[in-house]
């Protein structure tokens, strides 16, 4: 019943995160919904020999955050380093831990950080970000949680990313420029049409329709067509609620 409750509440959680006043508030909303212990969002400006993450929001305890910063742990944190070069979401158990990071991980666990985690890399324009969830649940329970909700976390991570970008740049962050066909495909998707139906309406092949939707997702920094459609509406790039088609052109 609890799992069913959370699944049915995914749209509510998404809306609460979109409406949250800050990224910190959004993180805590997600944690409460999925019973996660801690969450962190990093936004990296550069990825080179030195990891540069000037914007960080986390719910870890203040004592651990202070220790992490004072000891420069970002330089040896294997999750951050892996997360800012990977493309796909990953369970922390997949990461090979170098010898130099063993003391760091022991210190983290002594300060209440859970042994289990899941991270979602985000690529948006020239930015890279990393959204991570941390849990003190037993490994088997954590595995079930990841398997059940990882797809939902992917969409929510991108919503939190958009909120972080807005906190940094406000209205000055450039709005992605979508082509007419990309907007048309998102418009019909917003009205509940399948890819096959959109292709037929626009006189395109299925492959071309999928390519336009994928391109729109990449430009909007969205993990799915559903999220891309929601962002396009929010940015007023499309208007599926008018009496006539208005694709924001």
Automatic annotation (TrEMBL):
GO biological process, one term: regulation of DNA-templated transcription
SUPFAM superfamilies assigned: C-terminal effector domain of the bipartite response regulators, Pheromone-binding domain of LuxR-like quorum-sensing transcription factors
Pfam families, sorted: Autoind_bind (PF03472), GerE (PF00196)
Record keywords, A-Z: DNA-binding, Transcription, Transcription regulation
GO molecular function: DNA binding
InterPro entries according to UniProt: Sig_transdc_resp-reg_C-effctor, TF_LuxR_autoind-bd_dom, TF_LuxR_autoind-bd_dom_sf, Tscrpt_reg_LuxR_C, WH-like_DNA-bd_sf
Stretches assigned to the HTH luxR-type domain: 171-236
Protein name: DNA-binding transcriptional regulator, CsgD family
Organism, scientific name: Rhizobium tibeticum
């Amino acid at each position: 019943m609890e799992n069913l409750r959370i699944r049915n509440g995914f749209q509510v959680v998404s809306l609460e995160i979109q409406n949250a006043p800050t990224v910190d508030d959004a993180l805590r909303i997600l944690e409460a919904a999925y019973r996660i212990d801690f969450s962190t969002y990093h936004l990296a400006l550069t990825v080179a020999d030195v990891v540069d993450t000037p914007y960080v929001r986390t719910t870890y305890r203040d004592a651990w955050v202070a220790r992490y910063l004072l000891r420069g742990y970002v330089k040896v944190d294997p999750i951050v380093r892996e997360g800012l070069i990977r493309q796909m979401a990953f369970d922390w158990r997949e990461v090979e831990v170098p010898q130099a990071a063993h003391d760091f991980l022991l210190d983290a666990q002594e300060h209440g950080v859970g042994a289990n985690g899941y991270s979602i890399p985000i690529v948006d324009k020239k930015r890279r970000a990393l959204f991570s969830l941390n849990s003190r649940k037993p490994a088997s329970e954590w595995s079930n949680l990841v398997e059940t909700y990882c797809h939902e976390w992917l969409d929510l991570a991108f919503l939190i990313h958009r909120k972080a970008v807005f906190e940094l740049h406000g209205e000055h962050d450039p709005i992605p420029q979508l082509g007419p066909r990309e907007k048309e495909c998102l418009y019909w998707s917003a009205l509940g049409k399948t890819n096959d139906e959109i292709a037929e309406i626009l006189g395109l092949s299925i492959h071309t329709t999928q390519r336009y939707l994928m391109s729109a997702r990449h430009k909007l920094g969205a993990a799915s067509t559903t999220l891309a459609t929601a962002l396009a509406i929010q940015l007023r790039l499309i208007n599926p609620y008018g009496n006539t088609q208005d694709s924001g052109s």
